[in-house]
Amino acid sequence: MLSLPTVRQPKRLLGKGSGARPASIVSLLLLVVLAASLILTACSSSKSEPDTFTVTDLLGRSVQVPTKPTCIVTTHPTATETLYRAGGVAAGRDTASKYPTEVLDLPTVGGSYSISTEAVAALAPDLVVIEGLTQGQLPFVGTLEGLGIPVLAIRAMTLEEIYQSLTLVGEILDTTDTASQAVADIEGRIEAAQSGSSEGRSILVLVALSPDNLYAARGNSYPGTVAALLELGNVASGMPDAGGRYAGYALFGAELTTSYNPDVILTITPSPSGPRLAALLPTMPGFKEMPAVKARHVVELDPVLFLQASGPRIAEAVEALLEIMNSLA
Description:
The chain is an alpha/beta fold. It has helices spanning 22-41, 77-85, 117-122, 132-135, 139-146, 159-173, 176-195, 222-229, 277-280, 291-294, 303-308, 314-327, and strands at residues 52-56, 62-66, 72-74, 110-111, 114-115, 127-131, 151-154, 202-207, 215-217, 233-234, 249-251, 264-268, 298-300.
């Protein structure tokens, strides 16, 4: 992907007595303009009316997509990682997408929940891939579709959805062999991890989803899916779902700490700043009296791997959780 080169401005380029020649200045400006132009037209320069076909995305919508799209923008880590694992590349990304590392050189189009439709449109994509669960109802989706840009929704809350998303993207890109191999690799790694897992242990996954409340990951959440693959007993599975933006999670206050006695407490702190939840629990009323906390069976999980980038790296998450559980055996 082309990026605007950094031009080191001479210290007295236009100053009195600088001796700068007009031709040099014009050449420099032309270079900057050319680079900027290439960024904006990298996707559109070779565009013609493409052949299209219709697919059903992970939200059940019929989407008309181009045959072998060549300029794809992703708006969520799940979308970005699925695209690359299925054999594709992106022309633009959201700011949270940082894996694989080559995407760091791509232009960004805003945060996952504050996508700039102007920035997306400037890249002239022939396909935008979103994460359907959290982004499907956001206004930018309708705006992009109104501009004639197809928007494909994928999901990755369950292992089956991950496989379906990889397969769908592979079909669109005509990289079905790559997508199928990705599915097989994930299956193999998870099966290997399952063979090394001991049954019968219970966990509670606590997530600091909001500043004032803690939430427990239910079985239908992504962390819950990872735990279930190792047949760990999730003590929050039967708790009432919080619904809305916290679907898949249950509100978990100090008053509940006497009712649940997991063998291990796993914590996730999405915020990149401030103390980790695992370090705070031993100081929090109610929580500090839980047997798992007293036994120091509290482990902080990687928020990206276990929460923010659900998708093809699920096997890595399962392996990491297995290592944690074995270390506390």
